[in-house]
Amino acid sequence: MRMGAPPRVFFDSSILLAFLAGEDPRAYGLVEAVEDGEIRGYVNGVVVSEVMHGYLRLATGLSSRRIRQLLARRDERLVALLREDVEPLLGLFEVLPAPPPREVFEAAAAYGLMPSDAVIVATCRVHGVNVIASLDSDFRRVPWLRVIP
């Protein structure tokens, strides 16, 4: 019998896109652990956006410009990709609210992060999550954040 709460892990888009692409068995194992309740998984709005956009590019091979045009016309194929593949995956995760801008600016300056990564780090800090599942090495510059796998 398992004792205690499952570990809290923030999931970066790199892991979720690798899972959707079937590229990395580590990504599959981590998502499966969330699904099985072995890990409590978190994302934020940045990750939701990156996964939706990244998956549409991955699944269709289309440019961002073309995807934008098709979405504006409510292209059923693109909407189906999001509803059938992305929505069930993201539904496994708790979406954490955005951090205050000051926290984002501090994370960007302190760790030399791009804006989206700074939002993710600030989200983790504000919500007390100190483990991130990511294939992005930039998060390794944050000393209090443990990067897995």
Number of helices: 7
Q: Architecture in CATH?
A: 3-Layer(aba) Sandwich
Mean pLDDT: 95
Q: Radius of gyration, rounded?
A: 16 Å
Q: Strand sequence of the main sheet, in spatial order? A: 3-2-1-4-5
**Secondary structure: number of strands:** 5
N-to-C order of helices and strands:
EHHEHHHEHHEE
Please summarize the sheet with the most strands.
Answer: 5 strands, parallel
The CATH topology is Rossmann fold
The residue fraction in helices comes out at 55-70%
CATH class: Alpha Beta
Secondary structure category: alpha/beta
Tell me the domain tally: 1
The CATH superfamily name is 5'-nuclease
Shape: globular
Tell me the distance between the termini: 25 Å
Per DSSP, what share of the residues sits in E-state strands of 2 or more residues?
5-15%
Describe the protein's architecture and organization.
With 149 residues, the chain is α/β, with parallel strands linked by helices. The protein has a single domain (8-148), classed as 5'-nuclease (Rossmann fold), CATH 3.40.50.1010. It is 56% helix and 12% strand. The protein contains seven helices and five strands, in the order βααβαααβααββ. The chain has helices spanning 13-21, 25-35, 45-60, 64-72, 76-90, 101-111, 115-126; strands at residues 8-11, 40-44, 94-96, 131-133, 146-148. It has a five-stranded parallel sheet with strand order 3-2-1-4-5, sandwiched between helices. Helix 1 (13-21) packs across helix 2, helix 1 runs parallel beside helix 3 and helix 6 (101-111) crosses helix 7 (115-126). It is globular, with a radius of gyration of 16 Å. The model has no long low-confidence stretch (mean pLDDT 95).
